[in-house]
Design a protein that fits this description.
Helix content is 66%, strand content 11%. It contains seven helices and four strands, in the order ααββααααββα. A two-stranded antiparallel ribbon has the order 1-2. Strands 3-4 form a two-stranded antiparallel ribbon.
Length: 142
């Protein structure tokens, strides 16, 4: 009889974790999209910053360290479309700026239209703002 009670207690103890795991699996896509939009998480006295907020802070600190004139503001960073921001993270992993695949050309053209890249003699080159963002992203992610 004791093994039945033990088994029942084990089932009761594992119901909530199993339920939460099931919810996480069912809503994985929605949770990922939500987490991508979070810029700061604070629990008690501890806080963590994410994404563009970290980039804005990094750019601001770099500017203060070099005492350069601001070519890029926090507002500029927050106005970068999410797809372009994700693509700039990808670019920061690579020293070459030339697109390899056709979808990359569309992303680069979006960055050109936003003023972060220019096309010079058929090559994509970052503007001052684009170079500043890429340098900050390299220091954050790599």
């Amino acid at each position: 009889m004791e093994w039945k009670i033990f088994f029942l207690e084990m089932v009761k103890a594992s119901i909530w974790p199993a339920f939460l795991l099931t919810l996480l699996l069912l809503f994985k896509k929605q949770l990922r999209e939500l987490l991508e939009k979070i810029s700061k998480l604070q629990v008690g006295n501890t806080s963590v910053e994410f994404g563009k907020k970290i980039l804005a802070k990094e750019v601001s600190e770099r500017r203060q360290a070099t005492e350069s004139t601001p070519s890029l503001t926090s507002e500029d960073i927050f106005n970068i479309p999410d797809k372009d921001y994700e693509f700039m993270i990808k670019i920061s992993e690579n020293s070459k700026f030339m697109p390899v695949e056709k979808p990359d050309k569309f992303r680069y053209n979006s960055l050109v239209n936003s003023g972060y890249f220019i096309i010079d003699n058929g090559e994509y080159k970052p503007t001052d703002k684009g170079a500043e963002i890429i340098a900050a992203l390299k220091s954050i992610y790599h």
